[in-house]
Amino acid sequence: MKILVCMKQVPQKDAPLKLNESGTWIREDLSYEVNEPDAYALEEALRQKEKHSGEVVVITSGPARASQVLREALAKGADRAIHLEDNAFVGLDAFNTARAFSDAIKDEKFDLIFTGLQSDDYGYAQTGVILAELLGWPHATIIMQIEKQDGGIRVKRELEAGYFQYVDMPLPAVLTIQSGINKLRYATLIGIKQAKNKPMRKVTMAEIQSALGENLQKIERLYIPQKTKKTEMIEGSPAEIAKKLTEKLRNEVRVL
């Protein structure tokens, strides 16, 4: 099988948040890492390749620093990479990111496309679903298991309240992968050395600009919550205190 894995570089979870001057996004001088759900998507793609043979291709968009996630993927076993390299890709919404990926792979034929369920920074959970619609492929979300069958695949989807759903799908298809679907591997020393010789195709913004449009989603303002402390003492008999507390939880805190 030929599998494409869409990956993203995101700020490290414990990185201190620093907003840019316009207050619309974070500053660039942070530490970055691979988006966690994308790491599980890559691992699942590599396992499918090991079971059924084929090729795993990884793709990302962003500035030059984003190539690090591709190099890590190549070191773990991916065969080649595609980097949509430009600072302007950072500001694209999910719709235009999907458009960019779709245009960049228009000359290739994949059996499966994996994305992480959502990104750790935006958390929209939209790119994979939109990419499927642009390609006209069937898609399924929150995938916990994939089994290849004659003429297609069977996937296990995680639902609410501990329930799961099994779906038979034809190929090609797009799947968004849930974290925890498997156990992540580490890159070996041999893999790191081999990654240096694996091909990485770079795509500029100018090459796919015609496929893009205006962003349909825009962040107007970000702010860091201010820490505040406020203590209110409730007095009266136990019955009166319970009544007042219930009213506050229902009408002010709105947790009841």
Explain what the structure shows.
- This protein is an alpha/beta fold.
- It has a single domain, classed as HUPs (Rossmann fold).
- 28% of the residues lie in helices and 25% in strands.
- It contains 7 helices and 11 strands.
- Strand 8 and strand 9 (164-170) form a beta hairpin.
- It is globular.
Short description:
The chain is of the alpha/beta class. The chain has helices at 36-52, 67-76, 94-104, 127-135, 189-195, 205-208, 238-251, and strands spanning 2-6, 9-11, 32-34, 55-62, 80-85, 112-116, 139-149, 152-158, 164-170, 173-177, 200-203. Strands 9-8-7-10-6-1-4-5-11 form a nine-stranded mixed sheet, with helices on both faces.
Biggest sheet strand order reads 9-8-7-10-6-1-4-5-11
CATH architecture: 3-Layer(aba) Sandwich
Name the shape in a single word.
globular
For the record, the CATH class is Alpha Beta
Supply database-style keywords.
256 residues, alpha/beta, Rossmann fold, two-stranded antiparallel ribbon, 7 helices
Annotate the secondary structure layout:
Layout lengths: L1 E5 L2 E3 L20 E3 L1 H17 L2 E8 L4 H10 L3 E6 L8 H11 L7 E5 L10 H9 L3 E11 L2 E7 L5 E7 L2 E5 L11 H7 L4 E4 L1 H4 L29 H14 L5
Parallel strand pairs: 1-4, 1-6, 4-5, 5-11, 6-10, 7-10
Antiparallel strand pairs: 2-3, 7-8, 8-9
